[in-house]
Amino acid sequence: MGGILGLIILILDIIAIVDVLKSSMDTGKKALWIILVLLLPLIGMVLYFLIGKKT
After folding, report:
1. Whole-angstrom Cα distance, residue 2 to residue 24?
2. DSSP-derived secondary structure for 25-40
3. CA of 23: how far to CAs of 1, 9, 28, 29, 55, in Å?
């Protein structure tokens, strides 16, 4: 069961990173969000979709 959950988080992280790259944010903000998602996969992804997507 843990492997499936990890795979789901990985897929959602990839979706978040692709969304960051497609966004109209400046390069610095994009880099910060990608680093946050990579260092804190679950928390970074959730924060991006709650906070980062609005900016």
Report:
1. 35
2. --HHHHHHHHHHHHHS
3. 33, 21, 12, 10, 9
pLDDT digits over 1-55, tens only? 579 999 999 999 999 999 999 999 999 999 999 999 999 999 999 999 999 887 5
Q: For the whole model, what pTM was predicted?
A: 0.87
Decide: helix, strand or coil at residue 51: coil
- Number of domains forming the structure of the chain: 1
Q: Are 25 and 55 in contact (CB under 8 A)?
A: yes
Quote the domain boundaries for residue 49.
2-54
> What distance, in Å, lies between the first and last C-alpha atoms of the chain?
35
